[in-house]
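TL;DR need structure tokens for one chain.
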Amino acid sequence: MLSDALGAQSTGTGRAGWHRSPANPVITTAGGEWCADFIAPCSLVERGGRLWLYTEGSAGGHEQIGLFTAPVDDPTAWVPSEHNPILRVGTGFDRGGVFDPAVVEFRGRWLMYFSATEGDAHEYAEQLARGHAAGGPVGEWIGRAVSDDGVHFEKQPDAPVLAARCPFAVVHDDRLYLFFVKVVDGGYRIYLSVSADGVTFEPVQDAPVLDVGEPQSWDSCSVTTPKVFRDGDRFCMSFAGDDASLDDPKGIGLAYSDDLIRWEKAPGNPVFTAGPDGAFDCVSLQSPVIHRIGDRYLMLYAGSDRTIRDGLHSQVGLAWTPAR
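>> reply
TL;DR here they are.
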């Protein structure tokens, strides 16, 4: 398992941890006009000998969703889809932006769950963090879109499905588990709802399934951008965390579960931290998408050299660690 590969006390990078690719960033903001300000990985599918990476991108204050593909044996050679952005802003609850795509195959079709806002997504998050968003000018929701080919998605009239953001979907025992985040006490917490049909979701509990850490710990303020995958006989969640701010996390951690509901954080967290001064990922990193290929785990992540207030400039980084 990944926890075995990293070791109980592995942090940051190095021999026992993650090794940054010399090709970083592997996807830049030059990937299209729709992502000229920032781009981030969100969901990864291995299909037909290629990796399909669903991303969010922003330009002019509007976030939209794109698709990049690469050979399984060369996850640095990403090619943008000619249809980008594959999901665009709408005219209703999603007129401000669509982002955080979570793509999963469920009962013969591809489903995409995505965050949507009526206004500026980051502005609203900051309002929430400061307790000034009650009755505010914008809302945030999770929408749903459906596709037969994984490229052409159609938004569904039953959306939005939840009042939240940053979804990640996992299919287990013919049910769909949807992880998402909400702001509590100035920081994000990770919650879970479950659905039998992919449309109607019920919370598994009122409390978050992954909460912030103890005071003074690396993730004591916020835990966000959950991504979940099967790792051996358990489920692994990768997530971003921070001890000071809502949405400029500086570390990436892991948590494990046997049932997708009860999670235990890995003792060696954070397993990956922001890069050195001057690097593309020197200020913040989040949205860690982990996938095993052969004898290695790859991690795609969003790294930025600016805070959100200074104009987020995330690009997609790649790191490796050997499997054991």
